Model the fold of this input.
Amino acid sequence: MSEPKSLYPELEPLLLSVSKPIQYVGGEPNSTTKAWNDTQVHWVLSYPDAYEIGQPNQGLAILYEVLNEQDWCLAERSFAVWPDLGTLLRAHSIPQFTLETHRPVGAFDVWGFSLSTELGYTNMLEMIDLAGVPIYSAQRGDDDPFIVAGGHCCANPEPVADFLDIVIMGDGEQAVVTLSTLVRDWLASGKAGGRDALLLKAAATGEFYVPRFFTVSYDADGRVESVIPNRPGIPERPSRWVLSNLDAWPYPKKPVVPLAETVHERYSVEVFRGCTRGCRFCQAGFITRPVRERSKAVIEAMAATGLASTGFDEIGLLSLSSADHSQIGEIAHEMADCYAGSSVSLSLPSTRVDAFNIDLATELARNGRRTGLTFAPEGGTERMRAVINKNVSEEDLIATVTTAFSQGWRAVKLYFMCGLPTETDEDVTAIAAMAHNVIKAGRTESGRRDIGCTISIGAFVPKPMTSFQWAAQCPPEVSLRRMRALKDTVRADRECGRGITVRYADPEPSLIEGLLARGDRRLSGLIEKVWRSGGVFDGWREYFSLERWMDAAAASGVEVGWYTCREREQDEVLPWDHLDFGLEREWLYNDYTDGLGASSLPDCRWSGCNLCGVCPAFSVANELAASKENPNGKE
Amino acid sequence: MAKNSPQPERREPPEMWVRIRYTKTGPARFSSHRDFSRAFERVLRRAQIPVAYSSGFSPRVRISFANVASTGAASYAEYVELGLAEPMNLDILKASINVAMPVGMEVVTAEATKRGAIQTELQHSIWEAQPFIGTGIDEAVAGLLAVDSYEVTRDGAKGAKQLDVRPAVTAIEVQQGVLRVTLKHAQPLVRPADVVLALVGLGASLTVEPLYTRMEQF
Ligand code: SF4
Done:
């Protein structure tokens, strides 16, 4: 395609009358602008939410650099525009544009979406439509971009399958380059064989899922009966990409430094990928197994170059549970030393309930204030915690917070979920007693009254590719009742209740999240209907409307309760069963029933393989930095 | 482990203050003051400028702004004062900052100054608004110059606000589709858009909404 023109001259006058126009202009340090004609494959990378949410996305930052490092590829960014600008764009017939060069997104070859929350689906449709690209894959022509999705939602992309051309499951670093090569060859051939030729080639590898080459059939009860390829030469179970040796992939090296304010303003180094703790509710853990750690040396080097290239003054040591890195103690200590006396601060997302976590937090807060510590027991009773495989005893928790208070911390935040399988009202109200004990322990230990505890509780949503993928979702009214009862129980003890704040998230969006998470292809019409009736930015409380979703569901004949609050039978074909994340279905089901029976399972990183299936499926293994450096040392 | 939180480090006052004049043009015109100050601190760190920090638990860069152009307005004459922890060659400072600046932001001059001088020394701004085309413009300009006082109502985030624009206008002309107006800095600050409101009130009718650019401060 010939070089598309910049839309900026038409866009600029509109920007005077929208909120936060800086998010639409690009030009940020480290953003990359390449000549169109010097490159063969033109990508747009998107996150279907506003710039402030999408720009800090780590996955997007990595792929942006990986693609732009190929001299024959170009990658630009495009985020959802707020409705004030969206309305103006439509009124002036200006399509969705990229930030780097303000070219129309529709002119690019490949358009990648990072899907990490189901509530972003309506925004994705809005962006595709605003680009002037048909929203359904089947309606796109040879000159439309290939719409590619990645991210955690791709554990079950079926509800949006009809909108997508290609789905990448798992780690994107190698996948995007491989896909680019296929696209380059197809473009060089003069698009021989049309759009389907490229899609067939991709699908034939078994590493890209092309939904429209799979036919879904349903049984008389409306359950999925089978999902099978409808073209010859396509593997039946497309599989996930798994990167090993993260040290060889030290991205992002120089992420874009936003001018507009965003939710995370820091340089993040992923200290490891994957998590094998085996929390039964945690999709992120199951779909990213096994653990792949970066070495201390690479982490420290990345932090140093990342700070120098961005000018950020905060380093985030990122992962699903950063305190679990095998060298995290040394890393935290050395980095705290290295940045002592500078304006650089360190943060480490960790909610582990143990004393080591406090040591880490204390180390990282060395020259700053000790504001609050976060722990995630997730369940209110010991039985509940065994069900979800979050094995923390109440004594552990009290001992941990006592240590924290004795070291000068004044407040703790505790995360919980509500609506877990087998949960009773008492499992939730028991959280109150736990919080009361935290306050008492804190007051005794510190000799002070200003001890605070915040309880943060949200509704559990069963997710595909987890042990709880068969479980019934708890109806929002039940979750709400339990969370309210918790608040009352907390307050009932006036003496301790004063120090406790209960925050609960509205369970209504969780119902829709649950619907979309475990839905099938019959939901695409519903998503379209919601979007056509004005649904966008569903992840934002001020925009989300349960009524809009329920009305559209009724009109499309979708029974929300059937998708959400129904426990699946063991042999029911799940809409995502044909996608290979390496997890043995039988193993997962056993883990589900073990969970219901409150039986726990240790972490395979430290106590031997549990045979979940992932490592042999992809010829990988847990990679721990400590044992790599010292292979004969303790494992 | 100490029972109490550590005391914050005390920091020396800056060794040197620098007055920096910079531009905010192209896409950068859409940055707000907050956007710019955040971005500029990162520029200073990327450029490894030895900036001075305040004392306290969250040390802040010693920096002060004056008369910041509003979001959407371009400028060739924005100013900041920056405290340095150690003296530095100002040509090198300027060059290093410019390498690290976002598109549309560029240091024009960097010179040694006394702390707080930009507040007292910069009393006027010359603004241009363009395209400035339509009907009744010359008459409205003459009409504004002929009175001593002209009140407009500015709609803002915090509701409507009345202000007299006339005393701030020290020079105004329209030539070849460009409005050029010199405004005295005062409280409340009169912006060029307020002057345009006055001209519209006096009978001018504009074909399109103009874009504003600050050309000079003195
Ligand atoms: S295959 Fe074994 S070692 Fe690998 S993630 Fe599964 S349980 Fe852990």
User: Anything to note?
Assistant: The mean pLDDT of chain B is 91. Chain B touches chain A at residues 1-6, 8-9, 26-28, 30-32, 34-35, 38-39, 41-46, 53, 57-59, 71-72, 100-104, 208-209, 211 (CB under 8 Å).
